[in-house]
């Protein structure tokens, strides 16, 4: 009797990797990743997170204050 051979477990297929990349890109563009990073930071620091609505208002306020008065 021969010893059983170990089978290599295949990783995610190219379609799954592509979809994961698209999902990551969409989350980065929409700001969803920022919210998750904020929640992780609050959890790590032991602080109470603000509501999602307050978080988005704060982000908008900061973004509006950093606008350029010129095109370039």
Could you write a compact summary of the structure shown?
This protein has 72 residues and is an all-alpha fold.
Explain how this protein is built.
The protein is built from three helices and no strands. The protein has about 70 residues and is mainly α. The protein has one domain (about 15-65). It is elongated. It comes from Nocardioides aquaticus. This is YbdD/YjiX family protein.
Principal-axis shape equals elongated
- Give the C-alpha Rg: 22 Å
Largest sheet: none
| Secondary structure: number of strands | 0
Secondary structure: helix percent: 55-70%
Question: How many domains in all?
Answer: 1
Structural class: mainly alpha
Q: Please, how many helices?
A: 3
Average of pLDDT: 85
Q: Report the sheet-strand fraction.
A: under 5%
Q: How do the SSEs run, as a string of H and E?
A: HHH
Low-pLDDT runs of 5+ residues are none
Q: Span from first to last CA? A: 74 Å
């Amino acid at each position: 009797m021969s010893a059983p051979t170990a089978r290599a477990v295949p990783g995610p297929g190219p379609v799954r990797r592509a979809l994961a990349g698209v999902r990551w890109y969409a989350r980065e563009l929409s700001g969803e990743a920022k919210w998750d990073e904020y929640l992780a930071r609050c959890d790590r620091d032991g602080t109470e997170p603000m509501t999602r609505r307050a978080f988005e208002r704060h982000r908008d306020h900061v973004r509006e204050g950093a606008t350029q008065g010129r095109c370039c």
